[in-house]
Design goal:
Length: about 100
């Protein structure tokens, strides 16, 4: 599941070298890309802004893809506990009985 826009570590320096208004324009376009709405023209570095929007689209696609159809990983994880007896344990009572009472 995709949660939002990611600013990758390799892009941090580039963002820090930009003015606040340039960063704002690019981030807004990244959010628009994530939401699937058209981007707007920016005054900032258009090539770099486009590359970041493509990263967002790629991340978004990866995040929405999920596990391949027929993936059995969830069943494998649950197989370990399937035959276990489920109990409600009062850990506070157990701690008082064993540690504080000594019995």
């Amino acid at each position: 599941m995709a949660y939002g826009v990611i600013i990758h570590e390799e892009d941090h320096e580039e963002f820090l070298d930009m003015s606040d208004s340039e960063v704002g324009e690019i981030v807004k376009n990244m959010i628009r890309t994530f939401m699937g709405v058209p981007t707007v023209d920016t005054t900032s570095n258009k090539r770099y802004a486009r590359a970041l929007c493509l990263k967002v689209a790629k991340d978004n696609e990866k995040g929405r893809a999920g596990a391949p159809k027929g993936n059995q990983n969830a069943k494998k994880r649950n197989a370990f506990t399937d035959n276990c007896i489920q109990r409600d344990i009062n850990f506070e009572l157990l701690e008082n009985k064993i540690i504080k009472n000594g019995s």
